[in-house]
Amino acid sequence: MDKKFVVNIIHRPELSPEYAEKALGKGEGVRDESLEIFKFQQNCAHKYGLKTTIQITYASLFSDVIIEMAKADHEKYADEIGLSLLGLPCPEFKEKYKTEDFCIWMFDEKRKEEIVDDVFGKFYEKFGFYPESTSSYFLDAYTINYIKKKYPTVKCAVATCWEEGPKAYHTCNNSWYTFMDGGPWNPWIPSKLNSHCPASSAEDDSGIVAIPHLSRDLMACFDGNGSNFGTHPQNVLRGMIYYNEKGEYEYPYLYNLIDQYNHLAKYNDGYSYNMMFVGPGWLNKRGRWEAPYELLAKSYDDGMKYYGKLKAEGKLADMTMSEFADYYRETHPNYMRGECALWKDILYGSRKEYFWYADPAMRTCFDFNQGGAMIDLRPYIARIPQKTGIGTENIYDASYPYLIQINYRAGFFTHYAGAGTLRSCKISCRGESTDLCLCRSMAKFERLDSAVRLTVNPVTVTLGGLDIEIQSVFTIEDGSGIIMTERKILNDIGNEKVTFYEYMTGGFGTTEYQADMSDVVLGVDSEKMQFSYLGRNITKENAEFAEIEIPNILTKVQMSGDNDTATVEEGIAFSPVYHLGLSKTISKGEVKTWLKLQKVN
To answer: How confident is the model at residue 26, as a pLDDT?
Structure first.
C-alpha cells in the first residue's frame, strides 16, 4: 500500500455535555441543541466528500434519533459507528452509578469493568454488533487490556491527549484534576504494561492502535497551553489566532498546522497523520471562547473544506478509525522503528526548531534553538506499570514520568544555577567557557537503516579571542535507548586545547515538584553513593561510565564514551537534581559520547 497523509475525522453526539449543563442549565433544550450541532458537523464533513467515525456516547444510546442517524450515515457515507467512553455524565449514568465522576480512567478497577460492560452491552443491544473503535481523553493499560479481552473486535482507540499535564491544570485555574502527559503525539501501538509506551514486540502489543485526542502544534503546545494550538478549529479560536488586517475571519495558522503534519511524511517513510475529534460543546449558539457562533460554525466548515480540498487533489486519504488501524498495522510492521518530527515554528515567525522522537525505549525532544540540547526525556524502556484511578497511588495523575523536562523543572536558564534538567555540552578554552545551549542553530534529518541522525548546522564559539567552529551530530538507535553524540572541531586551531564537558542534569516526576531522591544511587564505574542531598561528587579518570539508578521509576541512566574524567554529583535539598558528566580535551577531531537508558528491577 502506498504511503500517504491520513486524516481521521471523529464526531461524537454528546447529548448531555457536562459544559452545557453547568453553564446553561439542564433540560431538553441542551439535548436538542447538541443534536443539531452533531448534524451540522456530519453535514460539513459529508458536503466535502469526507467520511467520519461516529463515536456513540452513553447518553446517545438512549436516543432513537441518534441511533437511526448513525445507521443511516453508515449506510450512505460509509461512516464508522464506534463507541465512546466520553460523554458518560448523563442523567442515566449519574442515577445508575451514584457519582458525579465521569472519567473512565479515574474509577477503580471494578467500576471500570462494570462501566465498560454496561456501555458495550447497551451498544450491542442497539446496533446488533460490537464496535471496532472506542475513545476517551485517556485510556490506561488496565482498561485497554480489559476491553481487548472482552470485546476483541476493538482495534483502534483514542487513548491520550498530548501534553495535558500541569500546564493544562494551571490554564484551568488549578481545577483540571487529571494529568495524562508524557505519551506519543502520533498514533502508536500501546504496551500492555503502560499505555503511554509504544509496544516493543507482539508479546507486548495490547492489540489496538492508539491515536491522540488531537493533533497539536509540537512546539507551541509544548511551550505553552496545548488547548490553544491544535487542528481542532476551535483550539485555534481559543488561542485567538484569527482575523486579518481587515478584521475578517481568517486562520492561516490552522492550515499551516495541517500542512506541517503532512510534512512529517518526510521523516517517517512517506507516512503522515492528522486527526480531529470534536464534541458538540464547541459549537453552541451562545458562542464560546470569546468567539460568536458565526465564527465557530464558519471555522468548522472551513476546516472540513480544507481537508476536502486536499482529498480532491489526491493529497489526503480520509479513513475511519478501524480502517486506519488496519492501515497502520500494514505500514508499521517494525515495532522498534522510531516516530520522528522535525518541527519548525509556524506561529511566531522565529527560526526555532524542535526534533521529537519516540520509540519503545524513549520519548525525547532536542531544541536546536539551544544548540541541540535535550529538553524532554521519558524512559519508556522502564515500562513503568503504574495504575491509575481511585484505589491506586495515582488517582488523578496518569502521566508518564520524565527524566528531563524544561517546562516543569527548568533548563539552562534558571534562577538557581545548575538546577535545571537538561542534556547539553559546555565548551572551555583559554580560561573561558560557554554552553552550546547559548548557540542557536538548525538541523538536518537523515534516516538510516535502524537509526536516525540529526546533523546540526555548525556554530562558532569565541573563547579567549579564539574562534572555534563546532558541529554536533546526534544518532538515535531505534528501540535501543541509546543516543550517540558527536562534537566535531571543524577549523584548524593549532595546538590550542578545547575541553568538551558533556553533561546531563536530571530529575524525575510528573509535575514541577521532585519526589524523594533518597533511594537514588549514583556511581562512576564500581564506586557508588546513595543520594543524601549533600552535594557530593565522584570523579574518576578515564572511566568506563557514569550512571544513576532511580528505583522509583525502574530506570538507569548511563553516560559513556571519550573522557579524561567522568563525574556524578548529587544535588542539595534546595536543588534536587542529579548530574552526570564526561570531560574530554582535544585540539582537533571529535569527541563521541553515549547516553543509554536501561530498565532496572
So the answer is: 53
Rounded distance, CA 214 to CA 308, Å?
19
pLDDT of residue 2: 64
526 to 77, 464, 521, 547, 555: CA distances (angstroms): 66, 38, 12, 10, 18
Q: Measured between alpha carbons, how far is 360 from 479 in angstroms, rounded to an integer? A: 6
Determine contact, residues 353/442, Cβ cutoff 8 Å.
Answer: yes
Distance (Å, whole) CA 251 – CA 237: 9
Angle at 452 between CA 447 and CA 458, to 5 degrees: 100
Residue 22 confidence (pLDDT): 55
Q: Is 404 exposed, middle or buried (0-12, 13-18, 19+ CB in 10 A)?
A: buried
Contact 386, 552 (CB under 8 A): no
Beta strands at 575-586 and 589-599: parallel, antiparallel or unpaired: unpaired
What is the DSSP code (8-state) at residue 227? G
Question: Which three three-digit cell numbers place residue 296?
Answer: 465557530
**CA gap 299, 87 in Å, rounded:** 24
pLDDT, tens only, 485-517:
999 999 999 999 999 999 999 999 999 999 999
Grid cell at residue 280: 458538540
Alpha carbon distances (Å) from 36 to 14, 51, 87, 284, 522: 11, 19, 17, 9, 61
486: enclosing H helix or E strand: strand 482-489
Q: Are 185 and 212 in contact (CB under 8 A)?
A: yes
C-beta separation of 180 from 398 below 8 A: yes
Residue type, 155: K
The three-point CA angle 143-146-147 to 5° equals 85
Q: Report the alpha-carbon distance of residue 531 to residue 535 in Å, rounded.
A: 9
The one-letter code for the residue type at 192 is K
**Around Cβ 416, how many Cβ atoms within 10 Å?**
10
- Please choose, from the candidates 173, 179, 263, 175, the residue with its C-alpha nearest in 3D space to the C-alpha of residue 215: 263
**Contacting residues for 417 by C-beta, under 8 A, at least 6 apart:** none
| 83, 87, 91, 94 alpha-carbon torsion, rounded to 10° | 90
Task: Return d(Cα 261, Cα 278) in angstroms, integer.
Answer: 18
Q: Over the stretch 297-327, which tens digit does the pLDDT of each residue have?
A: 999 999 999 999 999 999 999 999 999 999 9
DSSP label at 370?
G
* Alpha-helical regions (H) of 128-159: 141-150
Residues 6+ apart with CB under 8 A from 72: none
Q: All 3 cell numbers of residue 94?
A: 449519574
| Residue 372 and residue 366 in contact, taking contact as beta carbons nearer than 8 Å | yes
CA–CA–CA angle 14, 17, 22 (5° rounding): 170
